[in-house]
């Protein structure tokens, strides 16, 4: 299963990584991207569409945190 990550900086201003036809789409505001993704998810700041299994796996292996941190540091 594939995951697309989106970090929103403002209206119509997002950094995106992952395929457009991803099974899971994760969205978080740039201000919350530095928070551990599993904490942001539990606080309702990180939103997802699709099944949560692949998302929880990405939380566990650290890949979600790595991608979201990288996207939040866009030039």
Task: Compile the SSE list and pairings.
Elements (H helix, E strand, L loop, with lengths): L2 E8 L2 E5 L6 E6 L7 H6 L3 E4 L2 H10 L1 H10 L3
Describe the fold and architecture:
The structure is a single chain. The protein has 75 residues and is an alpha+beta fold. It is built from 3 helices and 4 strands, in the order E-E-E-H-E-H-H. The radius of gyration is 11 Å and the shape is globular. It has a 4-stranded mixed sheet with strand order 2-1-3-4. The protein has one domain.
Give the amount of beta strand, in percent.
Answer: 25-35%
The major β-sheet equals:
4 strands, mixed
Strand-and-helix sequence, N→C?
Answer: EEEHEHH
Domains counted in the coordinates: how many? 1
**Rg over C-alpha atoms, rounded to the nearest angstrom:** 11 Å
On the 0-100 scale, what is the average pLDDT? 95
Number of strands: 4
Segments where pLDDT lies below 50 for 5+ residues? none
Using brief descriptors, characterize the structure shown:
alpha+beta; globular; 75 residues; single chain
């Amino acid at each position: 299963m594939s995951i697309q990550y989106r970090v929103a900086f403002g209206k119509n201003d997002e950094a995106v990584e992952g395929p457009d036809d991803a099974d899971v789409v994760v969205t978080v505001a740039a201000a919350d991207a530095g928070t551990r993704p599993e904490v942001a998810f539990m606080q309702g700041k990180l939103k997802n569409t699709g099944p949560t299994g692949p998302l929880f796996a990405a939380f566990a292996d650290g890949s979600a945190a790595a991608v979201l941190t990288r996207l939040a540091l866009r030039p």
